[in-house]
Design a protein that fits this description.
alpha+beta; 60s Ribosomal Protein L30, Chain: A; four-stranded mixed β-sheet; 45% helix; elongated
Length: 143
């Protein structure tokens, strides 16, 4: 048995834990999404592209000019490969966006990041075009 794989029960527990945390973190106040965008990645990549960097610079400026706003950075993957690897990659993608924004001077208090693996596809995983759309970090500015 491969010890690096999560059993289905463990996977469901981890997803439930993340969902509970998200519900608790937004329960105290109503969340309003004021702007959003999406960064895309190559397969198994965590690297911020030049295009993504341009978008993140704009997000950084918005956050620095609106200190009452926060950015929610949610990493995703396509369904290719092992679930635990995908979950790790999705977290690393969100972390890279977080790190980029921190390097642009955005305070930690304005940033929330996490990964969801392949649990919420934006498109079908049945073809490469859909898989490309699923390899992403969604950025939502909230107040």
């Amino acid at each position: 048995m491969n010890n690096n794989r999560l059993a289905d029960d463990d996977k469901d527990s981890l997803i439930a834990l993340v969902q509970t945390w998200l519900a608790a973190s937004t329960e105290a106040e109503e969340v309003h999404f004021v702007n959003s965008g999406t960064l895309h990645f190559s397969k198994n990549s965590r690297k911020i592209t030049q295009e993504s960097g341009t978008m993140l610079q704009k997000v950084a400026e918005q956050l620095k000019n609106n200190t009452d706003k926060k950015a929610l950075l949610v990493g995703h993957t396509d369904e290719s490969g092992d679930w635990t690897v995908n979950f790790k990659i999705s977290n690393e993608r969100a972390w890279e966006a977080y790190r980029y924004l921190r390097n642009q001077g955005v305070p930690r208090s304005q940033l929330i990041y996490y990964g969801k693996g392949s649990t919420e596809p934006a498109a079908s995983n049945d073809n490469e075009q859909g898989r490309e759309q699923n390899r992403r970090v969604e950025i939502s500015l909230i107040d």
